[in-house]
Amino acid sequence: MDSQKVDMFMMANSKFFEAHHLPAIRERLLSLDETKWGMVQTTQYKDPTTSLIISLLAGGLGIDRFYVGDTGLGIAKLLTCGGLGIWNIVDWFLIMGVTREKNMENFQNAIY
């Protein structure tokens, strides 16, 4: 793959991934076949900042977990009112990392 395309992708999407994943993503994109580039370009990633805002405003209802795709945990948070508030507070610190990990899963699904 063209390194200029890879650099543009990295600049536009680096906030959606953990910092330790970025070198692996770059290497994988450089070795990627040109036919899969369209799939990588069109993959939608969730914004970690948006997930944090959702968690702060409506995390007790599990909406933050529904947003990132953790339906089971979202239902559990909804039924327990955010684990009586404790789970809700813990998610304020974890939800951005969870969102970035889910984005990495989406990236890997797009390239395979």
From TrEMBL:
Keywords tagged on the record: Glycoprotein, Membrane, Signal, Transmembrane, Transmembrane helix
Entry GO CC: membrane
Topology versus the membrane: Multi-pass membrane protein
Presence of keyword Signal: yes
Subcellular location: Membrane
Annotated TM spans: 49-68, 74-95
Domain of life of the organism encoding this protein: Bacteria
Domain TM2: 45-93
PANTHER family, A to Z: BETA-AMYLOID BINDING PROTEIN-RELATED, TM2 DOMAIN-CONTAINING PROTEIN 3
Protein name listed in UniProt: TM2 domain-containing protein
Origin species: Flavobacterium fontis
Organism phylogeny: Bacteria, Pseudomonadati, Bacteroidota, Flavobacteriia, Flavobacteriales
